Each structure stands twice: as structure tokens, then as C-alpha cells.
């Protein structure tokens, strides 16, 4: 019987994949499987994964005939997973030895739907600890209670799928699947749905995942059209939250977060290619007009003056009737 399935997508990370695979070996157990998803890599990643499939205990190699993106690659792994529990890792990150076993012991001991863990963010030689924004540790909580308050960082603002472990019953309910085709911000609708619909979770102080920032091939470093998928991701958050019985309480948080992400991208608009920057402004203006206007007004009133002014200017921008509702390529 497989106790834990770990889904690990890879795409053109030949420089970093050896560290990832070495860390998986240091976490291997006879009842663990590692689902290595090659998302149609074009560098030397495929050769590294083929060797790992032969040499890494528990490795299962899954390949895409064309590049489909992180969300779809994770879904490929979820569909193939056989474990009682599931976890995620990205192909350029790594784990401390024995980390998975420690998190597994925590979730089994707490007997909850999922647990969230802290992580170490690695930028060049810098190392900083980032903690789950949940104060009560090692205690089973109701996930939707951790969405609010709107004006403070909460559990839905810590969207990293790899920072935790999840019981199979969530996969059976469809709660672990990602929106196919989302090329960035794929964790955002996922974390919101998880917190609205799962029954129980806990934050645990188990530090052992290392998240590599500043990778040149990462979408966070590339200013192309794929970055604009955050609009489609947050439109989904708003749409699904609007259908929730607690929509009146939860929507202010969703709108405020959406506004903060728009403001973040506008503040760094110079890193985008010129045509993409124009699309960013136009699609962000259209997104502001689609939001519940009373809630948007209240959100802007509680934001810092610089971000609020930037968004108010954008809100006044005329939006053509033909402006797309989603950030499609």
C-alpha cells in the first residue's frame, strides 16, 4: 500500500533538478511514491528524469507530449497518485532529509484533511523563513475560519501547494485539482477552494522545504503574456466565492487581495514587454469594473494611499466594450 504520493512537475530545470532528486532520495520510504511529471522539457531535464525513474526508489515517470504548464502537470500527477496522502514539490526546489516523514506523522497524528507548513525561501545565498500566517499551531481548525480578516495576511495569502500535505479524501472530492491551463497564480483559486470546502486543517511548525526564488526560467521572472493569467485566476476566486453561502463575509477579502495583486503588477510594469504592459493595464481596468463596486470602494478606502490612488486612476480608465473578460493569450 502506498502511504504518500509526491507530485513533482519538471520543465527545463536541468540545473536544479539534481538537487530536487537528491532530496527525494533522502526522503524515500518503501511506502512512498514520487510522481515525476516531465512537462515536455527541451533541455537536459528529460534525461535526468529517465535516470531517476530507474534509480530513485518509488519513482514513477509521467511525460507530456506538449508543454501544458504547472497546473496541468500537477493534475497529471494527482490523477496517477495512489497514496493515502498527497504532497507537492516543484522541480527546482528541495527538501530536508526526512521532511516528508515528519509532516506525514503530523497529519496522521492530527487526523485532519490537510496541514500547512512553513518554508525557507532561497534567493541566491540568502535564506529567510516564511511562516504560515496562522497563529495556533498543531491544533485542528476549521479552514474557512482562517480566510479572514480581510485586512490582514491570512492562510489564503499563503497559497503554496508544496507547503503542506493532503488526505486523499480531498482528491476524491476534486478539491486538489488545479485549473487546467493557468500558467501563473494557479495556487490562488486552489487555496481558496480548499479553505472554503475542506472540513479541517492545521498549521504545523515543521520546517524542511526550500523554495528557490530568482530562477531565470520561472514565470515570476518573465514579463510575458503568461503573467496575465493572474487575472483569470482571481476572476475564478471571485466567481466561486460569490456562490458561497458566506459570500457577504468572504468577498471583501477576495476583492482586497485581487486589488493588491493588480497594484503589485502595476508597480513593476516596466519589467513587462510593452504590448503586455498595455494589456495588463486594460485587463486590470476591466477587472476592477467587474468587481462588486460597493466592496471595491470599501477595499480602496482601507488600502495605503499610493496603491489606492493607482487603482482609482485605473478604475476611471475607459474600457472598450470588446475588452476581454479573461487574460487569454
Describe the structure.
By secondary structure, the chain is an alpha/beta fold. It is 40% helix and 16% strand. It contains eleven helices and eleven strands. The protein has a seven-stranded mixed β-sheet, sandwiched between helices. Strands 5-11-7-8 form a four-stranded mixed β-sheet. Strand 7 and strand 8 form a beta hairpin. Helix 7 runs antiparallel to helix 8, helix 8 runs antiparallel to helix 9 and helix 8 crosses helix 10. The longest helix has 21 residues. The chain is globular and about 60 Å long.
- How is the largest sheet built, in terms of strand order? 3-2-1-4-9-6-10
Q: Major sheet: size, sense and barrel closure? A: 7 strands, mixed
- Structural class designation: alpha/beta
Q: What is the rounded Rg?
A: 20 Å
Shape: globular
In total, the number of strands is 11
- Number of H/I helices: 11
Distance between the termini: 43 Å
Enumerate the spans where pLDDT stays under 50 for 5 or more consecutive residues. 322-329
Name the helicity range.
Answer: 40-55%
Provide the succession of SSEs: EHEHEHEEHEEEEHHEEHHHHH
Which percent range describes the beta-strand content? Answer: 15-25%
Averaged pLDDT: 93
